[in-house]
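We close this part of the discussion by returning to an individual protein. The sequence in question and its structure tokens are set out directly beneath this paragraph:
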Amino acid sequence: MKTLRSKLLLAMLSIALIITVLLSLVSVYFINVSAKDTLKSTAEPLAVQAAKNFDSTISSYTNNIVSTVKSDSFLGAKTDADRLKAVKSGFADNTGFYLNFTVFDGNGIVLATDNEMVSSSVEKEHIISACERSSAYITDIYTFGGKNYFSILASTKSGNTEQKVACITIQSDMLVNALNEYTFGKSGYVYLVGKDGEILLHKDTDQIGKNALEIGKKDEEYTEVTNAVEKILANNSGTTEYKFKDNNYIVGYYGSSYFDGTVVMVTNVADFTTASSNY
């Protein structure tokens, strides 16, 4: 009799264990589905906000330098050193490690600068392009001395005799930091991809310059990543997803007004499903 009861008890415990495991699996499944749905609905709005903040940052610098070259302090300066001070004063709250300032003449000769090495990265064609327009000229992102920069230039005539060009050269790490204020999850990140698939800005500097459209053609592990980037570049905004190294990623994206780029926000679903299933 005891043996029968023991067998029945064991059977009931086994059934209870199976039911518990099944319920746990079902619960985790629905948690995962819910987390993915939530991320999909959140990814695009966050990408939009990141892109608008990115554009606003560049726009504010552009407006500042255009205003500066039209200002009395710049036009009325007696020396080029004074003109440089006038340019820097327009960025009083932002001067520092990421910003460098230069005043050129219309032929690309440096008249005054706070960093000779960085000023040499600005090409003569950029200066000529700035002289040919009334608005600011923004260069592409370029690599110089192992770091990534872009420059904003604006020109005017001083005393109606000689054209002067004010230039601010910005280390692009500043923009990477601004973009990644909008990361979602502990391993999430935001980057900028160009219209041809080239990675323009990324917190992992080894990724900059790589082509996201080509990497999947050379390495099958990246096939889904490349497919996602193809979708991103075919649309101005939206969401997509891909799998990479056993992780599922939700991506929100939105076109930037600068560098022919698209801001891409990547979120690892595991950052949320793992945390959720632990409660």
About this structure: The radius of gyration is 27 Å. The CA atoms of residues 19 and 154 lie 71 Å apart.
